[in-house]
Structures are given as C-alpha cells and as structure tokens.
Write a structure and sequence with these properties.
Elements: H1 2-44, H2 48-56, H3 58-68, H4 72-93, H5 98-119, H6 127-132, H7 140-159, H8 161-169, H9 171-176, H10 181-203, H11 208-220, H12 226-251, H13 255-281
Length: about 290
C-alpha cells in the first residue's frame, strides 16, 4: 500500500514538472519567434541602446500598472511607448546628445520604478522575478496572452516589413518615395514595447534586450539576406530557449540567465562558423 502511494506521488510529481516545463517552453518559444526578427531591425537601425533604455523603463511601467489597477504588461507597454515618444521629442531639440539622453532616461526610469514600488504600502512585489524573469511560473493564461500578442506583433511586422526595410536602408530615400517614416518609427517603437513587456516574463527586465539582439547578431554572421536573417534569428532564439531550459533543469540554475548564456554560446559558435562561411564565399567577415 505504501509503495503504491509513493509511486502515485512520484508520477504526480513528474506530471507537474512536465506541465510547468511545457508552459515555460511554449512561452519562451513564442517570445523568441518574434523577438528574433524584430531584433534584426534593432541591429540594422543601430538601436540597441534605445532598446536597453526601453527595457530599463519597464520597472516604472510595472509600478504604473499596479498603481492604476492594470495588468503589469499593459503598464510596461504604455510606459515604453511614452518614453519612446519623449525621447524622440527631446532628441529633435538637440539639447543633449542621443546616447547621453538615452543613458539618462534609462537609469532615471529604473530608479524611479524602484522608488515607486517601494512607496506602495501594503503591496508586496516579487522584484527578483521582474528583474530576472520567472519563466517557470508561467500559467496557461500567460502562455495564451504571449501567443496572442506575439501573433499580433508578427502580423504587423509582416505587413510593414518592406516599408520598414526601405526606411532602414535609406530613410531619406524612403521619405522621398512617399513613405511615412515618422509613422514607421512609431509602429516599430510600439512593437518593441510589446515584445519587451512580454519578454520580461522570460528573462526579466535586465536581460530582455538580449532576446532581441543576441539571436539577431548570431543570424547576421550566417545569413545572406534580410529575410533569411530574420528566420535564422527566430530559430537561434528558439534554440537558446530550449538549451537554456534544459541546462537550468538539469543543473538547477536560474532559467533566464541560462537562456541568455545559451544565446551567447550560439553567438560565439557563429563567429567561428561565420568566418569559415565568409572565406568559402569570398566575403570579408564583419
């Protein structure tokens, strides 16, 4: 009887492990599948620091959402968009250099977010899960939200792929050809805000930008065209999620950090593979 009860307990425990690992895998793959292609534009437009500034502002977005009784994801998306609009307005004034302005906005918003959360009396916030992610705690509802929002982001990205690509290659020429480059910047910023808000659940505020830039940087070493680079970036991101979950499960390591480390490992491998590929094709490496 005791053995039967013990066996049943073990089987139930294995089932629980499979459930939360499956949700983590599905959630991570959903984010990686969109973050990779969007990250290509981040690299092409040289907006890595801009993305990092948006990610740092996410904590203030969490505080905003909690204060207004809104979902944290919505608060993050709204604040990221407001911060991006504020940066564009201040950048046009040319009072401060762009990189200096981004640094000020990034660290000021992070500090204000920490202060705002500390001032909310009677509200207990798991700060570590926001800063470093908690992918293993994803619920079924979280996975559904991730796939719904990521499907919307991917649909918008596909619709505006060519205009965004044209504006990225030569913004002045795209403007002459009649493209609304200002609107395209706004759309791109909104897509980044949504991906950062959702990606925060996977690797946290401090490392969410890595899901955008590292798989895309890896794909850049190997791809021969923008569409192939976007597809390869999505695949690299998905592989990073799988490897990171596997490593964290086997060695009981922080999952978000393991995913980022796996992505960095793939990038190091791409440096070697890209060098060989470039020599074979007669192309000088980057």
């Amino acid at each position: 009887m005791a053995r039967t009860i013990m066996a049943g307990t073990i089987i139930a425990g294995m089932g629980m492990i499979e459930d939360f690992m499956l949700r983590a895998l599905l959630g991570g793959l959903g984010v990686a599948g969109v973050a990779g292609p969007l990250g290509c534009f981040v690299i092409w437009r040289r907006m890595v620091y801009f993305g990092a500034a948006l990610a740092h502002s996410a904590l203030l977005g969490v505080a905003l959402g909690l204060a207004l009784g809104l979902p944290a994801d919505l608060g993050i998306a709204v604040l990221c968009l407001l911060m991006a609009l504020g940066f564009l307005a201040l950048d046009r004034s040319q009072l401060v250099a762009s990189d200096t302005l981004l640094g000020i906005l990034a660290h000021a918003s992070l500090a204000l977010g920490l202060l705002a959360l500390a001032l909310m009396e009677g509200l207990r916030v798991d700060l570590m899960s926001y800063l470093f992610g908690d992918i293993l705690a994803l619920s079924q509802a979280d996975v559904l939200v991730i796939y719904g929002l990521m499907a919307a982001v991917l649909a918008v990205l596909l619709v505006f792929w060519r205009p965004l690509l044209s504006a990225t290659i030569d913004e002045d020429l795209a403007r002459v050809e009649g493209l609304a480059t200002g609107r395209l910047k706004l759309i791109f910023t909104l897509l980044m805000a949504v991906v950062i808000a959702i990606g925060m659940k996977v690797v946290g505020i401090l490392m969410v930008i890595s899901l955008l830039i590292i798989p895309a940087a890896t794909a850049r070493r190997l791809a021969t065209g923008p569409e192939r680079m976007a597809l390869l970036a999505a695949l690299c991101g998905a592989l990073s999620v799988i490897l990171g979950l596997l490593v964290s499960y086997i060695w009981d390591l922080p999952t978000g950090a393991a995913i980022v480390a796996a992505a960095a490992g793939l990038f190091l491998l791409s440096l070697l593979a890209g060098r060989r590929f470039g020599r074979a094709k007669g192309v000088r490496g980057e």
